[in-house]
Amino acid sequence: MSIFVDRDTRLVVQGITGRDGSFHTSQMMEYGTQVVAGVTPGKGGQRFNRTVPVFDTVADAVAETGANTSVIYVPARFASDAIYEAADAGIELIVCISEGVPVLDMTRVIPFLREKGTRLIGPNCPGAISPGRSKVGIIPGTICREGNVGVVSRSGTLTYEIIHQLSGNGYGQSTCIGIGGDPIIGTNFIECLAAFEADPDTNAIVLIGEIGGTDEQQAAQYVADHVTKPVVGFIAGQTAPPGRRMGHAGAIISGSSGTAAEKMAALEAAGICVMKRPADVVSLLKERL
Amino acid sequence: MSIFVDRDTRLVVQGITGRDGSFHTSQMMEYGTQVVAGVTPGKGGQRFNRTVPVFDTVADAVAETGANTSVIYVPARFASDAIYEAADAGIELIVCISEGVPVLDMTRVIPFLREKGTRLIGPNCPGAISPGRSKVGIIPGTICREGNVGVVSRSGTLTYEIIHQLSGNGYGQSTCIGIGGDPIIGTNFIECLAAFEADPDTNAIVLIGEIGGTDEQQAAQYVADHVTKPVVGFIAGQTAPPGRRMGHAGAIISGSSGTAAEKMAALEAAGICVMKRPADVVSLLKERL
Amino acid sequence: MNLHEYQARTLLKAAGVPVPDGEVATTPDEVETIARAMGGGVVIKAQVHSGGRGKAGGVKLVENAAEARAAAEKILGMTIKGLTVNKVLVAPAAKITSESYVGIIVDRESQRPVIMVSPEGGVDIEEVAAKTPDKIFKLAIDPRFGLMPYQAMSLAFKLYDDVKQVRQAAVVMQRLYQAFVDAGGSLAEINPLITNDEGAVLALDAKISVDDNELDRKPAIAELRDLSAEAEAEIAAREAGLSFIKLDGYVGCCVNGAGLAMATMDLVKYYGGEPANFLDIGGSSNPEKVVTALKIIGADSNVRSVLFNIFGGITRCDDVANGIVAATSQMSFEIPLVIRLTGTNEKLAVQILEEAGFSALNDMDEAVEKAVQIAKEAA
Amino acid sequence: MNLHEYQARTLLKAAGVPVPDGEVATTPDEVETIARAMGGGVVIKAQVHSGGRGKAGGVKLVENAAEARAAAEKILGMTIKGLTVNKVLVAPAAKITSESYVGIIVDRESQRPVIMVSPEGGVDIEEVAAKTPDKIFKLAIDPRFGLMPYQAMSLAFKLYDDVKQVRQAAVVMQRLYQAFVDAGGSLAEINPLITNDEGAVLALDAKISVDDNELDRKPAIAELRDLSAEAEAEIAAREAGLSFIKLDGYVGCCVNGAGLAMATMDLVKYYGGEPANFLDIGGSSNPEKVVTALKIIGADSNVRSVLFNIFGGITRCDDVANGIVAATSQMSFEIPLVIRLTGTNEKLAVQILEEAGFSALNDMDEAVEKAVQIAKEAA
Question: Is C271 a residue of the active site?
Answer without folding.
Answer: no
